Every structure is written in C-alpha cells, then in structure tokens.
C-alpha cells in the first residue's frame, strides 16, 4: 500500500513578526492540514518547537495577552556579545512551554543556527530543545550567542532564514514554507523608521536596557529623517533575510510559499501578536488553492 506523502512546514525568521506563524498553523489545522514535520529558524524555531510539543494553543493564549511591560520583563540587559543576555527569556520558555529533549516531542522538529566562528549552517535535532531554540534566536548584536558543544551559535537567519532544506532532509515530501520578511525592505523603512513621529519601540527598548546617548543622540532619535541604532539593526536584518531567503528558495524551492504581509510590525513588536496572527491566517486563505494543488489526493 502506497504511503501518504509526509507534509513538512518550514517556519522562517522575522523576530516579532513570527507570531504570524501561530495564525498560519491554526488556519492550516482548520483546513485539515497538520504538518508531520516542522523545521524552524529563529522565531520560527520557537513557535515550531511549541507546535511540535503540542502546546500551540497555550502559546497563542499567552501571546494574545502579551503587553509591552511583559515583553520588557523578559529582557535582561547584557554587557558582552549582545544587548540582551536571553537568560530570562529562555528560563520562561523552559518553565511554561518546552523543556524536554527532541526525542520526546510529539512530532519531528529541527531548527537552524549559525556557527559564528566558521559561518557554517548548523542543524539542531538532538538534545535540549530549549537550548537549540536559544541558539537559533540569538540575533547578532541584540542577543548574546549560545555556546554549545564548543561552538558559538547565533541566529540561523544568517544562513538559512526559511529552512526548506532541513525540512526535506527530515523526510518531508511536500514542504509548505512561511516567509515573513518579503514586504519589509523599503516599505517598512518608510513606514516605521522615517515617518513615525511618536516614540518608537526602539526608544522604549533603549530606555529599558539603559542605553544612553546624550543630547546629540536624543536629537537624532527625534529627527524625522534619522533612524535609531535599533531601527538600523531591524532594517539591516530584514534586508539580509530577504536576500538570503530569495537565494535559498530559488535553489531549494518549497512546494508552496506562504507570505504574510507584516511590514507594519517592528523588530520588537511582540505585544502586537493578534495583528501578526491575523495576517498569518489571511496569508493561508490566499494560498489555499496552491496548498490544495500541492497536496493533491492527500488534501482534505
């Protein structure tokens, strides 16, 4: 008897925009599409690990109630390697969501990190899930790297923002990919970095982390034509991710690419989860004909 094709989903990087992955997974489930294999990068690794553990509903409930004070409460200022140490965030993640071995997850899961010393792509599929996720989300300059097995690991978005290749290597016959940054370059810069007169997420984060810039920095921050340091990081990472993702997806195409429209969300807008999730659901609705075509006889 011929077996049913194994469906995989590759969840891409995108910082706070990654809450859209929750909307994508929930919308797919409503259509009867439940991935057999999950691969993730950066925020896609965090959401993917929770989904693989069968705890997506709990994560969604928490995200819907997440406010800016709660976001700031999870960030611990760092002195070396990044503005944020990440210890409080990963401790919360372990306590409330996933604190187990890869082998104990309900579904196969893997995530991507980057070896900072060699530049090599690293696939994490064994050992502690929480520590693997910690490595995959270590955004350079913002979060301190993760030292693991004598390697210094940082965000997988540097090498493989949408890990279709990992998903196929894990045995997926059909891969749905979720790319979060396709509309960020240019449009996001005009909307958030250049024209927003109100205090931005970056200003509030700088204050929380104790970053002082003096009168000149304050003047620069308030200038309508000048971005802050964190907004520069945001746009730079977005440009990098888009370029790398396009290159990787051209050589390793997914069967269906799902692209939520998230240009209105900034790097640290984790308190705007409902907006991101709604965009994820909307993107699935647009992609449904392509998804059904790709799944063929195994679609519902």
Question: Helical amount among residues, as a percent range?
Answer: 40-55%
Shape: globular
Overall strand count: 10
Reported for the largest beta sheet, the result is: 8 strands, mixed
The percent range for strand residues is: 5-15%
Tell me the radius of gyration: 19 Å
Low-confidence segments, ≥5 residues, pLDDT <50? 188-199, 214-221
Mean pLDDT: 84
Ends distance: 20 Å
Given the helix and strand composition, which structural class is it?
Answer: alpha/beta
What is the N-to-C succession of helices and strands?
EHEHHHEHEEHEEEHEHHHHEH
Q: How many H/I helical runs?
A: 12
Structure description:
By secondary structure, this protein is α/β, with parallel strands linked by helices. The protein has 12 helices and 10 strands. Strands 1, 2, 4, 5, 7, 8, 9 and 10 form an 8-stranded mixed beta sheet that branches. A hairpin with a 2-residue loop joins strand 7 and strand 8 (151-155). Helix 1 packs across helix 12.
SSE arrangement:
Layout: E1 7-11, H1 20-30, E2 37-41, H2 43-52, H3 56-64, H4 68-73, E3 82-84, H5 87-96, E4 109-115, E5 121-124, H6 129-136, E6 141-143, E7 146-148, E8 151-155, H7 164-169, E9 174-178, H8 187-194, H9 201-209, H10 214-222, H11 229-251, E10 256-258, H12 273-295
């Amino acid at each position: 008897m011929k077996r049913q094709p194994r469906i995989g989903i590759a969840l891409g990087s995108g910082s706070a925009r990654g809450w859209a992955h929750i909307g994508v997974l929930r919308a797919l489930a409503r259509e009867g599409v439940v991935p057999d294999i999950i691969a993730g990068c950066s925020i896609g690794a965090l959401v993917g690990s929770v989904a693989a553990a069968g705890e997506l509903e709990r994560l969604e409930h928490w995200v819907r109630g997440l406010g800016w004070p709660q976001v700031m409460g999870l960030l611990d200022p760092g002195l070396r390697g990044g503005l944020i140490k990440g210890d409080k965030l990963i401790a919360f993640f372990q306590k409330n969501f996933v604190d187990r071995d890869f082998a104990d997850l309900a579904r196969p899961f893997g995530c991507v990190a980057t070896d900072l010393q060699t530049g090599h792509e690293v696939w994490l599929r064994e050992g502690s899930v929480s520590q693997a996720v910690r490595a995959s989300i270590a955004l350079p300059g913002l979060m301190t790297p993760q030292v693991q097995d004598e390697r210094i690991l940082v965000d997988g978005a540097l090498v493989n923002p949408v890990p279709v290749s990992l998903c196929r290597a894990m045995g997926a016959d059909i891969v749905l990919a979720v790319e979060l940054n396709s509309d960020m370059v240019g449009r996001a810069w005009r909307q958030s970095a250049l024209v927003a007169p109100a205090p931005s997420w970056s200003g509030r984060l700088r204050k929380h982390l104790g970053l002082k810039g003096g009168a000149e920095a304050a003047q620069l921050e308030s200038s309508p034509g000048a971005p802050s340091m964190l907004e520069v990081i945001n746009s730079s990472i977005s440009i990098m991710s888009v370029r790398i993702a396009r290159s990787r997806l051209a050589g390793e195409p997914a069967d269906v690419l799902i692209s939520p429209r998230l240009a209105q969300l900034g790097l640290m807008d984790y308190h705007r989860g409902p907006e991101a999730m709604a965009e994820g659901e909307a993107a699935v609705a647009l992609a449904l004909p392509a998804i059904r075509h790709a799944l063929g006889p195994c679609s519902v």
